[in-house]
Amino acid sequence: MEKELAMMDYDEQGTITEIEKDLRTRVAGMGIRVGKKLRMVTKQPIKGPVDVIVDGAETSLGLDMAEKITVDVV
Amino acid sequence: MKILLMGHPNVGKSVFFNRLTGANVTESNYPGTTVDYTKGWMKIEGEDVELIDVPGTFSLDPKDRAEEVAVAMLHESKDVRVISVIDASKIERGLYLAMEILEEGYPLVIALNMRDVAEDKNIVIDAGKLEWILGVPVVSTVAIAGEGIKELVSRIREAKPVDVADITANTASTADAAAGTAGGEV
Q1: Which residues of B touch A26 (CB under 8 A)?
Q2: Which candidate in B11, B59, B119 is best for mutational testing of the A interface (most A CBs within 10 A)?
Q3: Is the dihedral of CA B107, B150, B115, B166 positive or negative?
Q4: Per residue in A17-62, pLDDT tens?
Q5: How far apart are the C-alpha atoms of B42 and B3, rounded to whole Å?
Q6: pLDDT averaged over chain B?
Q7: A55 and B93 in contact by Cβ < 8 A?
Q8: Above 0.90 for ipTM, yes or no?
Q9: Which residues of A touch B122 (CB under 8 A)?
Q10: CATH fold of the domain at B2-177
Q11: Topology, domain A2-73
């Protein structure tokens, strides 16, 4: 099932299927690209950032960025 | 000749810097910003060369002031060699930055730092093979323990610009050879 990264629940895992074009190069340096598997670990309240684990490394994404990333959740 | 230490934040650039330079270190702000950087001198085969500890950056497409400074320092320096410091346990994103630097034609040496941490996570990297694929020196290091630093210094002279097309070709042939074996290898 596909959903926005920002909408993922705690501990949910999935594969990135789409990243909005303007964001693609910005997040590529952090290891986030289409086809990558990730796990959501924490979401900060009040529009705070979303923390995900990609390749065993924790990365935190602003909510506005997380809204532009689509994940196929397993 | 100038040497820049570049890499993501928290990969050990400053540990290398402290290991490689002695006294006579200057810390200053990049003109017009509050981003500071350190520079010092080191000796390679008797010659004094300037070593700069560049602020950490994720890519050459800057997202904040510190990254802007990092990129500007790379672009403004002449006769520069880059030591790309990579956290061996997060090699993919580290290589992303290294590739960006290579694409712009800078001579590069790769320091695969924190080899011990990577091994704790069951990540073992074949530095020789990576070196063959990329065509630039790749050295495994544990900077805080001083492992691999000497080898790194001795290979800085070998740093050279490479053609990205060659890397693509090498990657393809490695991928063919590895087709039957288990994935996950870099």
Answers
A1: 59, 61, 63
A2: B59
A3: positive
A4: 988 888 888 888 788 888 888 898 988 888 888 999 988 788 888 8
A5: 9
A6: 86
A7: yes
A8: no
A9: none
A10: Rossmann fold (3.40.50)
A11: SH3 type barrels. (2.30.30)
